[in-house]
C-alpha cells in the first residue's frame, strides 16, 4: 500500500469514528411495530409518536418539499437523554426515499426531503422511538 493510500484510509477511519452515533444502542429497548387502536380518537401517546407529513408545492422538475414531524396535532415527541426518536424513514408508494438518524437531546423528530411526487400516490413515514416502538402514518397525494 502506498503511503498516500494509507493516509487516505486513516482519514476515512477518523471521519467514521467522528460521525458514528453518539447514543448507546442498548437504550433502544422497543422495536415493536405499534398499531393505532382508534385512528379517530388517538391517545396522547399515539399522537406523540405518529408522523405528521406535510407536502409543499412541486417545483418545475416535480420535486416537492416533504416535511415529517414526529407528533401530530402539536403533541411533539421529546428528545431527552433516555427517550427520543432515533430514526425516521420516508417512503413513496412503499419505497424508501429518505431517512434520518437522530441523537438524544441534540436533535428532535424531524425529516425534510425534496421528493419527486409526480407519480406518487401514497407517502408514508415511519418513526422509531427507543422506548415506545415503531409508529407509521400515510397520506394520499
Ligand atoms: Fe416515545
Automatic annotation (TrEMBL):
Domain Desulfoferrodoxin ferrous iron-binding: 42-135
Cleaved signal peptide residues: 1-22
The keyword Ion transport is assigned to this record: no
Domain of life per record: Bacteria
Keyword presence, Metal-binding: yes
InterPro entries, A to Z: Desulfoferrodoxin_Fe-bd_dom, Desulfoferrodoxin_Fe-bd_dom_sf, Desulfoferrodoxin_SOR
UniProt keyword annotations, A-Z: Electron transport, Iron, Metal-binding, Signal, Transport
GO molecular function: iron ion binding; oxidoreductase activity
Entry-linked Pfam families: Desulfoferrodox
PANTHER family linked: SUPEROXIDE REDUCTASE-RELATED
Family of this protein: Belongs to the desulfoferrodoxin family.
Name of this protein: Desulfoferrodoxin ferrous iron-binding domain-containing protein
Species per Swiss-Prot/TrEMBL record: Sulfurospirillum diekertiae
Amino acid at each position: 500500500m502506498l503511503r498516500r493510500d494509507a493516509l487516505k484510509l486513516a482519514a476515512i477511519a477518523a471521519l467514521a469514528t467522528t460521525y458514528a452515533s453518539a447514543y448507546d444502542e442498548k437504550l433502544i429497548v422497543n422495536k415493536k411495530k405499534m398499531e393505532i387502536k382508534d385512528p379517530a380518537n388517538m391517545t396522547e401517546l399515539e399522537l406523540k409518536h405518529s408522523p405528521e407529513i406535510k407536502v409543499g408545492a412541486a417545483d418545475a422538475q416535480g420535486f416537492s418539499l416533504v416535511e415529517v414531524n414526529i407528533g401530530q396535532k402539536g403533541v411533539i415527541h421529546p428528545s431527552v437523554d433516555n427517550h427520543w426518536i432515533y430514526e425516521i424513514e420516508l417512503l413513496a408508494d412503499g419505497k424508501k426515499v429518505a431517512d434520518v438518524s437522530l441523537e438524544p437531546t441534540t436533535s428532535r423528530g424531524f425529516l425534510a426531503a425534496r421528493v419527486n411526487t409526480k407519480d406518487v400516490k401514497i407517502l408514508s413515514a415511519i418513526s422509531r422511538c427507543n422506548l415506545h416502538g415503531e409508529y407509521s402514518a400515510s397520506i394520499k397525494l
